[in-house]
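Reopening this one. Same input as before:
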Amino acid sequence: MKPSIVILAGGGPAPGINTVIGTIAKTFLSKGYRVIGLHEGYKGLFSDTPSHIDIDFFLADDIFNRGGSHLMMSRYKPSDEDFDKRFNLRFFKDNHVRLLVTIGGDDTASTANRITKYLSSHNISIQNIHIPKTIDNDLPLPNNQPTFGYQSAKSEGTRVATIVYEDARTSGTWFLVSAMGRSAGHLAIGIGASCHYPMIVIPEMFNKTELTIDKIVRLAISSIIKRRIMGISYGGVIVSEGIFYELSDEDLKSTGVTFSYDEHGHPELGKVSKAQIFCTALEAKLHQLNLNAKIRPIEIGYDVRCHTPVSFDITYCSQMAFGVWKLFKAGETGCMVYINSLGIATPLYLKDLQDPVTGKIMPRGVDITREKVQNVLRYMLHYITPADYAEAQKYVPYPQDYDFYNILNWEMPED
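Same output, byte for byte:
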């Protein structure tokens, strides 16, 4: 029997998954291995009858540049009881498996590390190599290297947000755009900066003050007033959905929305419109201030996850797939593939990335102090500062309450 490898994908889709699957398959097939694709993520490893397919060259060649994932995905996270009673060791033995390749984000990576420990404790000689994936760009890769899928999602999000901004200019409207990003604002600031939106709100901006819906609303109004002072009647505010994870229970309840939660304890934001919630709150505050502005909500999220990967991600994902072969031949296991700016593949060991208390891989947020981020905040955004107070009093009685730096409790930089 040929030795085989197994590939699975967990979490949500990201452009480039099929590139990883197809390129790994082509590489290992050429080396004489059988390639098995496991459906439904980790669920298949804890089932007596896992759903799987054999991936040959023709299938790999057909899917490598497509969006979505040919292998069905799931957010299944095995419990300790699952490991004790349901782990399908027979599947690995019967199929002569030598390598398990997992594709996913922080939750998938954390489970991959648990599997490595489990196999080792049962003296099973199977290597495990993880491919870091998320459009949120929040896995802690060195040197700010992006996670695959982020550039493609940002590109498609920018296309949508550009059209929205053109509508704003054409119709004299303010659009409140919510961008996907569960625990970090990379996608929101990436899209917002690409489209020159006058206000961007991400959770990392609230590093010196509590994040509240009221402050988000005041930041939006700050931009609206500033643009009125400039003689501009339109604009856009892009908000990262990750701010929901930072809001207090009281603030969440004040929205009037009842949230359900997924198996990892995350609010199921896909079931509600974040843009609509903030749009409603913003309209209420504008009405209270007797400010007239046409506000419309837009959501950017699920529509970018299965987009066709851009050239950057096709090349990047192919290099990571080649890196899997390199690390496999070197005997590496319990690691992620890391491709540096020179294209060199090295292992990042999952045990070194995990929080020592929780065992989770902590997400990478936007470094708000970096010059490229500060340049966007200081020179691209439009908001009230002390120099605008006299003009702003035409619209609000206390302009200081809408001062960008006051809201965030930041010191105003000197130019």
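So the earlier flakiness isn't reproducible anymore. For the record, The CA atoms of residues 19 and 96 lie 25 Å apart.
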